[in-house]
Amino acid sequence: MTTAYEGKPGDGKAGVSSLDWLPYRTTLPGCGRKVEVGPFEESEWQAGMDLMNLIIREGKSWPFEEEFETIDDYRGYFLSHDAFVVRGVEPGLDATGRMSKPGSVLGTFYCKPNYPGLCDHICNGGFITNPDYRQMGVAKIMGRAFLRAARDLGYKSSYFNLVFKSNEASVALWESLGFERVAVLENAARLEGVEGLDTAYGYRFDLESLKQDYLIGGKK
């Protein structure tokens, strides 16, 4: 039985062979740096876990309190189904002005069932932007690629359980991509930098409404 919060250790490539548009190449808005969205490679698992644990320590956008201690623990959560990386394909500056090499991991995301059994056609996504690349358009690239991947993997809709009100960038992103706010859960989370308990929103996207050629145009 699989839900958004549990699974067996995988390689993040459960269904990616059907995504013949990967790798998807595009550029970061503003700086024009070339990047690509592709499946996780084994050489990137550690970088992915390090980012996951960094976000957990920040305590602002994910519900976890305890860090992942082993790669297998991380694989059981993030790589149990289909997971992806946004990586640089050429050298470029990060948000701090430092130069980074080709292959740098700018962001990671997964797509997997939100619920088991009779509701497993509804998927969930988890997204992490490397803090060194925030405010550079990485999250929007991930969001758009997620929608195309989720639809092509056979999911009928997507539902995000916990988008925190205090995470204004995340709220703005999902609404800009056409997600519908369908739930409000008050007093949902104890977050760093938030007085009291933060509110969480639930966001839904009808994947069957996605245009057939959505995201087409990136170069492989």
Q: Output the strand order for the largest sheet.
A: 1-2-3-6-7-8-10-9
Largest sheet: 8 strands, mixed
Which regions have little confidence, pLDDT < 50, spanning 5+ residues?
none
Q: Give the ordered list of helices and strands.
A: EEHHEEEEEHEHEE
Strand-residue proportion: 25-35%
State mean pLDDT (0 to 100 scale): 94
Rg calculated over all Cα atoms: 17 Å
Label the overall shape. Answer: globular
In total, the number of strands is 10
Structural class: alpha+beta
What share of the residues lie within helices?
Answer: 10-25%
| Cα end-to-end separation | 35 Å
Q: Count helical runs.
A: 4
Q: What would you note in describing this structure?
A:
With 220 residues, the protein is of the alpha+beta class. It has helices at 45-58, 71-77, 138-152, 168-176, and strands spanning 24-27, 34-39, 82-88, 92-93, 99-100, 105-113, 122-129, 157-164, 180-189, 198-206. The strands form 2 sheets. It has an 8-stranded mixed β-sheet, with helices on both faces. A two-stranded antiparallel ribbon has the order 4-5. Strand 4 and strand 5 form a beta hairpin. The longest helix has 15 residues, at 138-152. The radius of gyration is 17 Å and the shape is globular. The relative contact order is 0.17. The mean pLDDT is 94.
